[in-house]
């Protein structure tokens, strides 16, 4: 039986860091989507997803990640995915280039903080 999906978050200037633990599949992907939407303090916040404790990502999780990326991008922000295990990393290789994927959480946070410090929206933002 898969472990339940759990979340925790922390806030940095202009960045929301979300740690996810458990399997993200067709039955739990909506929970991740809801948590990302509820947890961001501001629409323009960059989002870092720490997936180091996620052993499995299903195709439905890809839809959630792409949606979170699109929402962030449309608000002048970015999504950073960090610390993927081997299985999820293989799945994300299918959409390589669409997401900001980092080997470590530290790299992802550093990139998001640098993006948050930029005076102009990263990704085009809404006029």
From TrEMBL:
Residue span, STAS domain: 5-85
Any one GO molecular-function label of the UniProt entry: anti-sigma factor antagonist activity
One Pfam family, short name: STAS
InterPro entries listed in its UniProt record: STAS_dom, STAS_dom_sf
Top-level lineage group: Bacteria
Name under which the protein is recorded: Anti-anti-sigma factor
């Amino acid at each position: 039986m898969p472990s339940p999906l759990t979340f925790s978050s922390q806030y940095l200037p202009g960045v929301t860091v979300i740690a996810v633990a458990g399997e993200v599949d067709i039955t739990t992907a909506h929970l991740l989507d809801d948590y990302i939407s509820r947890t961001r303090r501001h629409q323009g916040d960059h989002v870092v997803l720490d997936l180091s404790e996620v052993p499995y990502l299903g195709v439905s999780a890809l839809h959630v990640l792409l949606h979170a990326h699109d929402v962030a991008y449309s608000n002048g922000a970015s999504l950073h995915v960090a610390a993927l295990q081997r299985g999820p990393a293989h799945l994300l290789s299918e959409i390589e280039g669409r997401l900001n994927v980092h080997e470590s959480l530290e790299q992802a946070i550093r990139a998001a903080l640098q993006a948050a410090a930029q005076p102009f929206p990263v990704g085009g933002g809404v006029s």
